[in-house]
Design goal:
483 residues, alpha/beta, 6-stranded antiparallel β-barrel, 14 helices, globular, binds guanosine-5'-diphosphate, Translation initiation factor IF-2, chloroplastic
Length: 483
C-alpha cells in the first residue's frame, strides 16, 4: 500500500495522457513507470527476462506475476562418459538427502530433491537423475525446458572430450547457464590447470581467469569440494530469480514414464507452475486421467506437489514420453478432447515433418536464397553441425568453408566433432534449425530414420570439394533439390 492517494496517481496518469477507466488493470510497465517516479520499490510487478521467457513458453501466465514465489532450481549433470557423472549424482544423493526425512533413500523416479546448506539454512534443489546430454537434447527437441542450470563434469586426468563439447553445445543452445566441475582431482595424473586452459580455448573462460564461467575442482569419489560446487550452483540459481505461482492448477513436464504391471502407467512429472494435487485431472500429450496417487522421490505417498518438485503419479490411461508437457484441466471430458486433439496434431506433425516444413535443409535454404526471401532473419545465417572422421578434418573443412564469400549469408558452426552422426546431433539440429554435414563418417540407419522423422537433413560427403560446392551453391541459391 502506498502513501499516495488514488486521485493523485490518476491525476498523474492524466497528465501523461493515460486515462484508466477505473476497471482496467494497469499494465506492468505502467506500474513500473509510476513506481519509479514516486521512488517506490517494485516487487514482482514487472516480469524479469526469465519470467518473460517462461510466459512465452507458456509455463507462466501474465496472471501469475502477482503471486510468484521462489522455486528450487532444477539441475542436470552432463559430460563425457566415465568423467564421473553417476558418481557425483550418487554422492550428492547419499550425502544430501537427510536421513531424517521419512524413507530417506531415493527411489529412482527420474529426479530427486536435496537440501543444500547455504548460510546455515537448508535450501532445496532438484537433480535430474538421467545424466547426459542425450536425455537433455531429446527433451529439448520436444520443446521442453526443464533444466535451470547445467553442471558439466570434466575429468581432470582426461580433459575436454567430444561429449564434453556436445554437452556444452546443448547447454548453450538451450541458453542454460553452465557450471564446470573439474572432477577426479584426487587422481594421479590429474591436471586441472590443463582443463582450465582447454575451457578457455573453447570459449568458456573460467571466472578465476576473468571470465564468467564458474569452475569448481572436485572429487566426486571422495566428496571433496562437492559442497562448494553445490553452493556455486545455488548462487547462480539465486541470480536467476527462479519463480513460479504455487497457487494455481499445475502444469509441467514428463521426466520419466513407464508401465508398471499392477499400477499401470507410472509417470514422473516435474511441476513447473502451480501445485499438482490428488484427484486433479491431467492431460499429457495423448494420455489423460485422474491423479489417483502421488509419490515423492522417497516413495512416500503425498497429497500434493509444488513447483520444481518431482512427483510420481498414477492414474493416467497411457504412457507419455519424457519431454511431454502436462496440464491440469477442469473435467475428464475436456481432458479427453485435448488428448484427442493432441493425437491428431501429432499425426499432422509427423506428416509435415516428413515434408520438411519449417526445418532447414540445404536445398530449402537454397530456394529461399534464390527466391530472395532472405528477409527472414534466420536465413541470413546457415547453421551447421558437422561430424568428421578425425580431429584434423574439423579445421580443414571449417577453413575451406570459411573462405566462401559471406556477404549475404553467414555460416555458423554450432557444433563440430569426430564420430558418427548421432541422434543427439539431430536433436540439436531440430532446436537450432541447423543442417547436419558428415565428412568421411556414416550415419547409422537408426539415426537416419530418426532424422527423417524429425525432418532433418543429413548430408554425407567423401570428397571435401563436393561438400564445399553444395554449401556454396546453397548460399548462392543455386543448389538443386536432391531426390
Ligand atoms: P559417468 O560415465 O560419467 O557416469 O562416470 P562414472 O561416475 O561411472 O565414473 C567412471 C569411473 O570414474 C568410475 O570407476 C568412478 O569410480 C571413477 N570416478 C568418478 N569420480 C571420481 C573421482 O572423483 N576420483 C576418482 N579417483 N575416480 C572417480
Amino acid at each position: 500500500n502506498l502513501a499516495i492517494s488514488e486521485g493523485e496517481i490518476l491525476g498523474h496518469l492524466h497528465s501523461k495522457g493515460i486515462k484508466p477507466d477505473g476497471v482496467q488493470k494497469l499494465d506492468k510497465y505502467m506500474v513500473k513507470m509510476i513506481c519509479k517516479e514516486y521512488e517506490v520499490e517494485v516487487i514482482d510487478a514487472v516480469p524479469t527476462r526469465l519470467e518473460e521467457m517462461a510466459i512465452k513458453k507458456g509455463i507462466l501466465d501474465e496472471d501469475d506475476l502477482d503471486s510468484l514465489e521462489d522455486r528450487p532450481p532444477v539441475l542436470t549433470i552432463m559430460g563425457h562418459v566415465d568423467h564421473g557423472k553417476t558418481t557425483l549424482l550418487d554422492y550428492i544423493r547419499k550425502s544430501k538427502v537427510a536421513a531424517s526425512e521419512a524413507g530417506g533413500i531415493t527411489q529412482g523416479i527420474g529426479a530427486y530433491k536435496v537440501q543444500v546448506p547455504i548460510d546455515g539454512k537448508l535450501q532445496p534443489c532438484v537433480f535430474l537423475d538421467t545424466p547426459g546430454h542425450e536425455a537433455f537434447g531429446a527433451m529439448r527437441a520436444r520443446g521442453a525446458r526443464v533444466t535451470d542450470i547445467a553442471i558439466i563434469v570434466v575429468a581432470a586426468d582426461d580433459g575436454i572430450r567430444p561429449q564434453t563439447n556436445e554437452a556444452i553445445a546443448h547447454a548453450k543452445a538451450a541458453g542454460v547457464p553452465i557450471v564446470i566441475a573439474i572432477n577426479k582431482i584426487d587422481k594421479d595424473g590429474a591436471n586441472p590447470e590443463r582443463v582450465m586452459q582447454e575451457l578457455g580455448s573453447t570459449g568458456l573462460m573460467p571466472e578465476a581467469w576473468g571470465g564468467d564461467i564458474p569452475v569448481v575442482q572436485i572429487s566426486a569419489l571422495k566428496g571433496e569440494n562437492v559442497d562448494d560446487l553445490l553452493e556455486t550452483v545455488m548462487l547462480i540459481a539465486e541470480l536467476q530469480e527462479l519463480k513460479a505461482n504455487p497457487h494455481r492448477s499445475a502444469k509441467g513436464t514428463v521426466i520419466e514414464a513407464g508401465l508398471h504391471k499392477s499400477k499401470g502407467p507410472v509417470i514422473t512429472f516435474i511441476v513447473q507452475n502451480g501445485t499438482l494435487k490428488r484427484g486433479d485431472i491431467v492431460v499429457c500429450g495423448e494420455a489423460f486421467g485422474k491423479v489417483r496417487a502421488l509419490f515423492d522421490d522417497k516413495g512416500n505417498r503425498i497429497d500434493e506437489s509444488g513447483p520444481s518438485i518431482p512427483v510420481q503419479v498414477i492414474g493416467l490411461n497411457n504412457v507419455p514420453i519424457a519431454g511431454d508437457e502436462f496440464e491440469v484441466v477442469g473435467s475428464l471430458d475436456v481432458a479427453r478432447e485435448k488428448a484427442e486433439l493432441c493425437a491428431e496434431l501429432l499425426r499432422n506433425e509427423r506428416i509435415s515433418a516428413k515434408a520438411g516444413d519449417g526445418k532447414v535443409t540445404l536445398s530449402s535454404f537454397a530456394s529461399a536464397v534464390s527466391a530472395g526471401k532472405l528477409s527472414g532473419l534466420d536465413l541470413h545465417q546457415l547453421n551447421i553441425i558437422m561430424k568428421v572422421d578425425v580431429q584434423g578434418s574439423i579445421e580443414a573443412v571449417r577453413q575451406a568453408l570459411q573462405v566462401l564469400p559471406q556477404d549475404n549469408v553467414t555460416l555458423k558452426f554450432l557444433f563440430q566433432a569426430t564420430g558418427e552422426v548421432s541422434t543427439s546431433d539431430i536433436d540439436l539440429a531440430v532446436v537450432s534449425k541447423a543442417i547436419v554435414l558428415g565428412f568421411n563418417v556414416k550415419a547409422p540407419s537408426s539415426v537416419k530414420s530418426y532424422a527423417g522423422n524429425k525432418g532433418i537433413e543429413i548430408r554425407l560427403y567423401r570428397v571435401i570439394y563436393d561438400l564445399i560446392d553444395d554449401v556454396r551453391n546453397a548460399m548462392e541459391g543455386l543448389l538443386e533439390p536432391v531426390e
